[in-house]
Automatic annotation (TrEMBL):
It comes from Chenggangzhangella methanolivorans. Residues 14-76 form the FAD-binding domain. Transmembrane segments: none annotated. Keywords: Monooxygenase, Oxidoreductase. The keyword Thylakoid does not apply. This is FAD-dependent monooxygenase. The keyword Nucleotidyltransferase does not apply.
Length: 291
């Protein structure tokens, strides 16, 4: 993987400043740079910190990463697999041959950032102040450095604080709507008959949306989605005794494919249903944007 080269200038002036260097910010930076537009990409960390985020993507998403010129770098850290079995209503109802990709989110983002052209000014720091205007946007970082741009892209993920600074808001419609957990299984991918699996819940009583299993390297990775709160006993039990909790929730899995046994930590994240919006004060951004 290429090293992420960071800029050290105290003042940077570009056409487009992008705050947030996750998958969205890195992809946007690649696409703009390919079109000859000068870009500054502001990342809060030199390397993306390890965290449970997107671990499985499909061809549509990799096509966007390709369009940004970052596909080869992303593929170098993804595990590609062909085929997904869908189990619903107690049966395998579909064997889709589609190609998908599994990978560690931080490693993928770092690889994408490492492949950005040298012309992209990659700045590492935290944006503290955002001043917006019809022609010019001004950013001040915590260490005093500044960035001026004609347009500003907010790709700050779940950060409500950053949105607020830009006059935007994140309205939560359903807090802790559901919950997701990521973990490795102790059995390798070769132990299972499917390339990857989506196992949907049997009904409202099991509170299971779905469990998906897919390979990352030599491990079988699991992403579980359940209609549970982070504060209920079930969630604590999932963390403390995942094998018992999972096998109790999905007895049919054990009958069909054997014991669900977890290796390593269970990473749990609540999911909110939310929508980010722009206030009327900043709505002119839309018509200030060149078509
Ligand atoms: C648990 C979980 C599982 C998921 N699974 C999948 C999946 O399997 N497939 C899929 O397609 N999607 C999945 N998603 C969704 C996917 O992870 C997100 O849509 C995607 O990561 C969003 O990328 P982003 O670049 O917008 O945000 P992020 O990757 O969060 O990047 C935002 C960046 O902005 C930075 N930032 C914030 N404020 C500032 C500031 N003031 N100054 C500088 N930097 C700042 C943050 O530090 C961060 O690095 C999952 C999400 C979660 C939470």
């Amino acid at each position: 993987m290429s090293e992420i080269v960071v800029a050290a200038e105290t003042e940077t002036a570009v056409d487009v400043a992008i705050i947030g260097a996750g998958a969205a910010g890195a992809t946007a930076a690649g696409m703009l740079a390919k079109r000859g537009i000068s870009v500054a990409l502001i990342a809060s960390h030199h390397r993306h910190p390890p965290e449970y985020r997107a671990e499985k993507i499909g061809e549509a998403q990799i096509a966007m990463i390709d369009e940004a010129g970052l596909g080869a770098a992303a593929r170098s850290v993804f595990t590609a697999f062909d085929g997904c079995w869908l189990r619903r209503f107690g049966h395998i109802v579909e064997r889709d041959p589609k190609r998908e990709y599994g990978g560690d989110y931080g490693a993928v983002v770092d690889a994408m950032r490492g492949a950005l052209p040298a012309g992209v000014a990659q700045i590492v720091g935290r944006v503290e102040t955002i001043e917006t205007g019809p022609d010019q946007q001004f950013l001040r970082l915590a260490d005093g450095r500044s960035v001026r741009s004609r347009l500003l892209v907010m790709s700050t993920g779940l950060s409500e604080a950053a949105l607020k600074k830009a006059g935007m808001s994140r309205d939560v419609y359903s807090r802790h709507h559901s919950l997701t957990a990521g973990f490795d299984l102790s059995r390798p991918p070769s132990d299972f008959p499917f390339p990857s699996l989506v196992w949907a819940g049997d009904g409202p009583s099991d509170k299971l949306a779905y469990l998906t299993l897919f390979p990352i390297g030599n491990a079988m990775r699991a992403n579980l989605f359940v209609y549970r709160s982070p504060f209920e006993d079930w969630t604590r039990e999932l963390r403390d005794d995942p094998n018992r909790t999972l096998n109790e929730m999905m007895p049919a899995f054990r009958r069909e494919y054997g014991e669900l046994a977890v290796s390593g930590p269970v990473m749990i994240r609540p999911i909110d249903l939310a929508r980010s919006s722009t206030s009327s004060a900043t709505a002119w951004w839309r018509w200030a944007t060149p078509s």
